[in-house]
Amino acid sequence: MALTYADLIEVDLGRLGSAVADWDSTVKGLKTAAEHARTGMLAKSDAARWAGVNATVTRGFVTETAKEIADLHTEAGSIHHVLDDAHTELVSLQKQIRTAQAEARKWGIGVQDYGDGTVHCVYPHVRGDTDVRTTEENTARDELNGRINRILAHAAEIDASVTRALNKSHGNDAHNAGHSSYESLDDAQAERAVELAKLGPEMTDKQYLELNSIMKFNVRDADFSTDFYKSLGGPKDALEFYGRMSLNGTMGDNKDRLALAQQLQKNMGLALASATDPDNKSHLPASWSSEFRKLGAQPIPLYRGAGGSSAPYGYQLLGGMLRYGNYDARFINPIAEHIVQLHRKDPLRFTGNRPMSPGSDLDWGFNPSGKNGAGYDPLTSVLEGLGHSPDAAKKFFTDAPTVYKEDGTVDRNATLDYSYFDELNRAEFEWAPDSIAPAGSEAAKHARETGADALGHALEAATTGAAWDVDPPVLRRDEQTADVMQKVIDRYNVASEGGPPPEIMKDSLARMGAAYIDDLNYSLMDWGDTGDELGRGRIFGDSSDGSKRRAFDMSDAKNFMMLVAGDEEGYKTMSAAQQVFMASGLASHEDNRGDGLAFAHNAAFTNGILDESRAHQIREDFKDDTTAKNLEMTKQGEWRKTLMTGVVTAVAAGGTALVLGPAAGIVATTAVPVLLGTGASVVSTAYGNHTMQYLQDNEYKNNAEALRKIQGLEEVGIHGAWMPIYNYADAIGMTQTEKNGLLPAIRGSYGDGKDAISSIEKTLS
Q: Which pLDDT score, from 0 to 100, does residue 449 have?
């Protein structure tokens, strides 16, 4: 019978707590009894000088009785451990689901309990109501629906695991107490997970679902994940199991089996990250990392008789797991270094074993997720791993490299004459084709781009201090992350000798630019090297994540922004980030006219750079088609009008940034640093709301008529640069005469930004 929504909300867990306390007392009592049996009757029996049949029978009886008492103590201890852990977890889940229930009531959302362990959240129909809901209301409903179902699934897994563990502890034998014993519920769950894993591809879909369910809710628990991997055997056993299940899931067109393999891939990656973190109390020994490196360049036959060129390399198997999880640098970085060094020697060494027979399943391989390759190129895989491991990514691109031999051992007598950043960002760098698509096909061409995409993700993690796709995003910048961003700006700009970035990397570059919009504005306030003298450190000092400002070269900053904002999506990301940052800065300087106006001039200059960067690229793209050029300019202007009329949504994210969501036209959710108001120490929801309100009330609502009249990119850009400052002038009490004098000055600053890009355009022509 399924555990239902009503069950979890209404069940009296106090009774389970009482049972835990009773079993605790039972364990203590049996411990005393077992000790007495061992030191009392058993010791006396062993010391007695008996002889004959009666002595043999009596001694055997006493020995067996003492053993049964000890076994009862062990069984009681196992039951207590399992029930105690279950009680703790269920209390937490009950609290979570009651919180969700309260939130649903607040929104007026009904929770339909299907009685099978799932629910459906809906807004009940009210007579006369149109049933039209806002985006915020629909988002709240969908989030609650997912959250409640996850809580119920977790509770159901605990219920099933406890039942299974109690049955194994008891053994269903009233006359024999010695059976399975567990130190924790994790112990029992890991045992069952490995029992299922030992079946390999022979697992039925039902068993596969059970394995994934157990793992899903325990992979971040180091006790569970460490026990699971140890029970599989060693590193080679783990690779073999993953490899067999990946091939089984990606073979043919069984969508259900593929979905199960995708979930297992994620579960095994998250569990490996937890199990290999040396800071966790339970963790695998460091030898696992060195053993993985040893196996990395070796073929690992997955089936008896399979070998030679058909066997996958260890790194191909490991790479599939590394794509998921936040890994400790001490584990993943030596592996990443070794892979890069092997790739430099032979870029195609790991893709020679791809099946090339006609009609092969294009997704057959070691990356069931299907994201960025089929899993034959471990370089792409490990870069994706770094993209989810920000601390490791930061160190990978900044720490001094270590040289590794072919077998993965350290070569203490060798040094590298290149950095990993420079190596991976070479214009002529050869990415391996991570696909079994026919050579020359579009799929094969795209396969060579997936590595560059993964590199972009790794750089995002290294520059922002957060996984590239974490939701909501946060910023954890420091001196090292800024060092990596400096490398990015130096390498990727319109004047770079290394050439333009791969198209597939541009979205990552745009999100990095948005994450450093404060430093880019700060760097642009340095005309004639006067920035420090004019107090830019004071004006830009209070950034939301507490990081110190990094001064990039002014020309490099302009060149980087011109490159990124030239792209349509890059322009959307960067200009939206600039609008939010500008609003926060003006709001924060309402009590300081001098600093506020200095910030305003610089913001207008930055807006000019972004707008002209996009306009330049449009002119380049449509040199010979004036009509198309004008249509594109108008389209960009329409997007900016949408942005300016308040479609941007933002919320506080982890106290470090505002989150710019998809409603702003951004491809992915983006973190944007903001300037804090006087006395603010973190970005609170209140401050975030104040910034958003500033965007809406003090910037755009006052000029709806003007918005309807303007057309194209240039007019909208000018309006967007001037109106926030015009309303700021109102906020600080400027007279009309002062405003009239401010207008040409701001217009000049905006024009200077456009001219800066025009000058670069002439140089590049």
A: 86
CA distances from 398 to 94, 151, 187, 479, 669 (A): 45, 41, 39, 11, 27
Give 170-174's long-range contacts (Cβ < 8 A, gap of 24+).
170/75, 170/79
Sheet holding 657-660, edge to edge: 652-653, 657-660, 670-672
**Whether the Cβ atoms of residue 241 and residue 200 lie closer than 8 Å to each other:** yes
Return d(Cα 139, Cα 751) in angstroms, integer: 41
**Nearby residues of 33 by Cβ (< 8 Å), 6 or more positions away:** 69, 72, 73
Region 193-213: mean pLDDT is 95
In a 10 Å sphere around its CB, with 0-12 CB exposed, 13-18 middle and 19+ buried, how is residue 740 labelled? Answer: exposed
Interhelix angle 554-566/479-491, nearest 10 degrees: 70
* Secondary structure (3-state) at 210: helix
Instruction: From 433, 616, 436, 609, select the one nearest 524 (Cα to Cα).
Output: 609
* Tokens 């479609």, residue located: 647
pLDDT range class, residue 516, cuts 50, 70, 90: very high
Using alpha carbons, select from 167, 106, 160 the residue that is nearest to residue 137.
106
The CA angle 183-185-189, to the nearest 5 degrees, is: 110
Q: Are 23 and 9 in contact (CB under 8 A)?
A: no
- Axis crossing angle, helix 554-566 with helix 736-764, rounded to the nearest 10: 80
Q: Give the three-class secondary structure for 23.
A: helix
> What is the C-alpha radius of gyration for the chain, rounded to an integer number of angstroms?
32
Best CA proximity match to 450, nearest among 513, 387, 496 = 387
Computed from CA positions of residues 679, 684, 690, 692, in that sequence, does the dihedral angle turn out positive or negative? positive
pLDDT of residue 22: 64
Structure tokens, 339: 């892979």
Task: Decide if pLDDT at 682 tops 60.
Answer: no
Rounded distance, CA 170 to CA 79, Å?
Answer: 9
* CA–CA distance, 463 with 620 (Å, rounded to integer): 31
Q: Each residue of 258-270: b (16+ CB within 10 Å) or e?
A: bbbbbbbbbbbbb
Averaged pLDDT score across all residues of the chain: 82
The helix/strand/coil state of 617 is helix
Measured CA distances, 47 to 39, 40, 44, 50 (Å): 11, 11, 5, 9
CB neighbours (10 Å) of residue 438? Answer: 12
Pairing between β-strand 652-653 and β-strand 119-122 as defined by DSSP bridges: unpaired
Distance CA 439, CA 754 (A): 45
144-151, long-range: CB < 8 A, 24+ apart: 144/100, 144/103, 144/104, 144/107, 144/109, 144/111, 145/119, 145/120, 145/121, 147/96, 147/100, 148/5, 148/97, 148/100, 148/111, 148/119, 148/121, 149/118, 149/119, 151/8, 151/93, 151/96, 151/97, 151/100
CA gap 662, 668 in Å, rounded: 6
CB atoms under 10 Å from CB of 118, counted, come to: 17
Q: Count Cα neighbours of 409 within 13 Å in the Cβ-side half-sphere.
A: 4
The torsion of the CA quartet 400, 405, 411, 416, rounded to 10 degrees, works out to: -40
Quick one: pLDDT band at residue 18, thresholds 50, 70, 90?
A: confident
What confidence category does residue 726 fall into, taking pLDDT thresholds of 50, 70 and 90?
Answer: confident
Return d(Cα 490, Cα 559) in angstroms, integer: 9
Kindly report the number of other CB atoms within 10 A of residue 328's CB atom. 20
Instruction: Find out whether the peptide bond into 355 is cis, omega within 30 degrees of 0.
Output: no
Token pair recorded at residue 406 = 């072919």
167-195 core/surface letters (b: 16 or more CB in 10 A; e: else): ebbbeeeeeebebbbbebbbbbbbbbbbe
Coil/strand/helix, residue 659: strand
Amino acid at 323: R
